[in-house]
Structure formats: C-alpha cells, structure tokens
Amino acid sequence: MKLIERLLLKMIIIHFVFLLLTQVFFHRFNSFPELQQIAQYEGVTENDLTEFLETFSGK
C-alpha cells in the first residue's frame, strides 16, 4: 500500500510541474495567441467590478 501511495504522490507532483510549465509556456511566451483573445472575451483578464455587477443587475 505504501508503494502505491508513493507512486501516486510522485505522479501528482510531476503532473503539477508539467501543468505549471505549460501555463508559463502558453501565457508568457505568447505561443498560443488565441488564448489571449479567449481570456479577454471571457473577461478574466480585467478586474472591472462595475461591469460585472451591471451584468447581473439587468436580468
């Protein structure tokens, strides 16, 4: 059982490192320009709370 737990922990750590490297690669080096357009369209890059509140007040 200990062997399986150690193996799973190592796999989780390796997966997390690859996730971080991929995020840095996509966001910092602009290797996927459509990602920036998608993020702007979704509104996750702006911190404008008033537009967010106006969206929900106009039901």
From TrEMBL:
UniProt keyword list: Membrane, Transmembrane, Transmembrane helix
Name under which the protein is recorded: Uncharacterized protein
Pfam families linked: DUF5359
Alphabetical list of InterPro entries matching this protein: DUF5359
KW Transmembrane helix (keyword) present: yes
Source organism per UniProt: Niallia endozanthoxylica
Superkingdom, natural source: Bacteria
Membrane-spanning ranges: 7-26
